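Table 4 source record.
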Amino acid sequence: MKLTNRTILLTGGGNGIGRAIALELARRNNTVLICGRNLNTLDDTASASDNIYSYRCDISVSEDIEQLLAAAASDGHKIDTLINNAAISGHYTLAKDFDISIIRRDLGANLIGPIELTQRLLPILSQHHDPVIMMVNSPSCLLPVADIPFYSASKAGLHSYTWSLRKHLGKTMKVIEIFPPAVDTELVSKLKHKKMSVKTFIDQMFQQLDQGKNDIWIGESKIMRAAVALLPFKLIFNIINARRSDGGKWVEP
């Protein structure tokens, strides 16, 4: 599948891999609508290409989604591709930390928001002959990273929703799921192990998209998928979570 000459809505396009995806899509002559909570970073991305347009939208807020879609339509954009990329990740100690507003924020940004945006866009996407939906997920959807529990839980939910969405849409719409490794961005800045460069990730992601793959596993995410498939879950879970991913130690209550 060649991603060219499309009108693409990309969430979280202001920084990290979202910015890199937006720039590559624009280079391929797509019209790219990027949205997020920080208009300054979005505008900075948009300033790099005449093919990129920025919209402020917190996808965890229903009213923001409504305003985004109305603004895009008013500007004459006919969206045929959606890329749910935006995500929030926070480190928490469940035995001590409890703030329901943070839980709702994380689940809203990572799970409820992408689902609502997708469902609201389905009638618009279905007007095109080859619509595409992409979910940027995480290998933590298969194997939770215990010190980012809400991120892991939300990605597991998004993975489940994506499979159900494929079943419901059948051949009417292409649904793609992307599983990055730890990429050298602010989102995983606390991780101590080696990270893949943004350029390497983008090159490998678009190579697999060009090959027409529906499930795109890159770098260490492929290793984690194989480990979960071949070894006892508890064993892999304990290995992955032997130390906190921010480099600290687990403290037993």
